[in-house]
Design brief:
Elements lengths: L11 H14 L4 H6 L3 H14 L7 H15 L2 H13 L4 H6 L11 H14 L7 H8 L4 H23 L18
Helix pairs in contact: 4-5, 4-7, 4-9, 7-8, 7-9
Length: 184
């Protein structure tokens, strides 16, 4: 149950934000409803998210796994739900997405994917537990530009997941739309 209200006075700004969200996602994501309580936070978050969406140095599959590992580690069910939906629509292997919570025991990941997920978990620990060995392992396959982007994505997902978990946001049913099978 959300720890802050998800309803708002129906101002032109709220209606515009809801319209844009429904157009893009099919519904209004709860983090957007929460951010509507503070327009400056909402605008700053939208600018950051819009900029981050244009980061293209890192392979989208690696980025997805890093983001999902952070969500799982923090325990943000909203982020896991939305992340599955988002990355499913980007073409990331659904088996890899489903196995993220138990990735260490799964055999579906490459060595590089495992190194990325290990790094994401180490960054998410409080305090961070990143080692020189983890970074050196990643530098075998990633450029400096890719490593910086990976680090920034893990940090961004820590922000998202911690805000959403702290405010009590839970699964909103996005994943259900990925599980539908076409009718023949």
């Amino acid at each position: 149950m959300a720890r802050i209200g998800l309803e708002h006075e129906r101002t032109w700004f709220v209606r515009l934000a809801e319209w844009g969200s429904r157009r893009k996602y099919g519904k209004v994501p709860d983090p957007g409803k929460v951010a509507l309580h503070n327009r400056r936070v909402l605008v700053s978050t939208l600018l950051l998210e819009g900029t981050a969406a244009r980061w293209k140095a890192l392979d989208p599959g690696l980025k997805a796994l890093a983001v999902m590992v952070v969500s799982a580690r923090i325990g943000c069910s909203w982020c896991m739900d939305f992340g599955y939906w988002e990355f499913h629509h980007q073409g990331v292997d659904p088996v890899k997405l489903r196995d993220v919570p138990g990735w260490r025991d799964s055999d579906v990941y490459t060595d590089l994917e495992r190194a990325v997920m290990d790094y994401a978990e180490a960054m998410t620990a409080t305090p961070p537990e990143v080692t020189d060995e983890q970074v050196e392992r990643l530098r075998q396959d990633l450029t400096d530009e890719q490593l910086v982007e990976l680090t920034a994505m893990v940090s961004l997902e820590n922000y998202r997941s911690r805000v959403n978990a702290a405010l009590g946001l839970t699964s909103q049913g996005f994943k259900e739309f990925c599980e539908l099978r076409p009718v023949r």
